[in-house]
Specification:
This protein is an alpha/beta fold and 311 residues long. The chain is built from 14 helices and ten strands. The chain folds into two domains: 195 residues, 3-Layer(aba) Sandwich (D-Maltodextrin-Binding Protein, domain 2), CATH 3.40.190.10; 91 residues, Periplasmic binding protein-like II (D-Maltodextrin-Binding Protein, domain 2), CATH 3.40.190.10. The strands form two sheets. It has a five-stranded mixed beta sheet, with helices on both faces. A five-stranded mixed beta sheet has the order 7-6-8-5-9, sandwiched between helices. It is globular. The relative contact order is 0.19.
Length: 311
């Protein structure tokens, strides 16, 4: 079949230019309404993604499970979450890679804490661990709790974890004294403190609570420029939050499930510039998942993390 010269030229240009552009028309990216995801919401609200020449639709999910199902089904091309879920997905033959760490508790800002109820006898962390900590097994909560206990020289095998997957219910169980303690994320830790609960230990400064940005491998391969632009927009948003925290507060209150009493009081975290996930931390979480029997597949750091996309 013969094409007119101008059409043939257009086809050649498309073949040559499209692989080099690496841009998708639209990126659907899954997220959760949590504090650590704030740079994503700021980047969308402040137009940082648009400034980078990409159209991003943030798809908010109520649970990590819903988000994982959507990714596996191809309804989204990437998502925000903890370190565990991309490892479990890859081990179960869903080709995904972590490309950046969005937040970690390497500074003074805590993100998870173990608390005891208001009133009553003040028990030690070791006593509370033995008597029962409301939490969720085989999740990031259990991992962080275990690492906090180890840091306090408390044997992890002494931990009695009471299964309460619903986090708001876990808060109520703590406040009503139905459990000796509870492991909670921010901003519910701060809310519990306001209501008289006592923080026994937290993850501040420990670097054990990474949240990461994850993409399907096929999207990384087909649209590397889109991923790079996306990460550049997120990086700009993180810098904006650090410089203008009060301008970011209304966005946080709208999207990050901050209880109304904390709308003006909760300390907005400082967000580091997104970096490649730390190898030691990635492998520590991976080994923990293997020890728990959640993952049985042998994987290396380079199989789980894709470098080269950060600005």
């Amino acid at each position: 079949m013969k094409y007119p010269k101008n059409i043939l030229t257009l086809i050649v240009l498309m073949i040559v230019l499209c692989p080099l552009s690496g841009h998708a028309d639209k990126l659907r990216f899954g997220t959760l309404g949590v504090i650590q995801a704030l740079p994503l919401f700021v980047a969308a609200e402040k137009g940082f993604f648009n400034e980078k020449g990409i159209q991003v639709e943030l798809v908010n999910f109520n649970s990590a499970m819903e988000k994982d199902v959507a990714l596996t089904a191809g309804q989204i091309s990437g998502y925000f979450g903890d370190l565990m879920t991309p490892m479990v997905l890859r081990a179960n033959a869903t080709p995904v890679s972590m490309v950046a760490t969005l937040f970690n508790t390497t500074g003074s800002q805590r993100m998870f804490a173990i608390l005891s109820p208001p009133g009553g006898a003040q028990k030690t962390l070791a006593q509370v661990a033995k008597d029962g900590i409301a939490g969720s097994s085989n999740t990031i909560i259990e991992y962080v709790t275990a690492r906090i206990l180890e840091g306090q020289k408390i044997p992890v095998n002494s931990l009695n974890m009471i299964e309460v997957k619903n986090i708001p219910i876990r808060l109520q169980i703590l406040l009503s004294g139905q459990a000796a303690g509870a492991a909670l994320p921010e901003p519910l830790v701060t809310l519990a403190e306001m209501k008289g609960a006592r923080v026994l230990a937290d993850d501040a400064g420990k670097g054990i609570s990474s949240t990461v940005l994850v993409f399907l491998d096929r999207f990384l391969k087909e649209f590397p420029k889109t991923v790079q632009s996306f990460l550049a927009g997120v990086s700009e948003a993180a810098a904006f939050i650090n410089k203008h925290p009060e301008e970011a507060r209304p966005i946080m209150n709208r999207y990050c499930q901050v209880p109304e009493p904390l709308h003006q009081r909760f300390a907005i975290p400082q967000f580091p510039k997104p970096t490649v996930p730390d190898a030691a931390h990635v492998m520590d979480v991976y080994q923990w998942l293997k020890q728990k029997g959640i993952i049985r597949t042998e994987m290396t750091y380079k199989q789980m993390v894709a470098d080269g996309y950060l600005p």
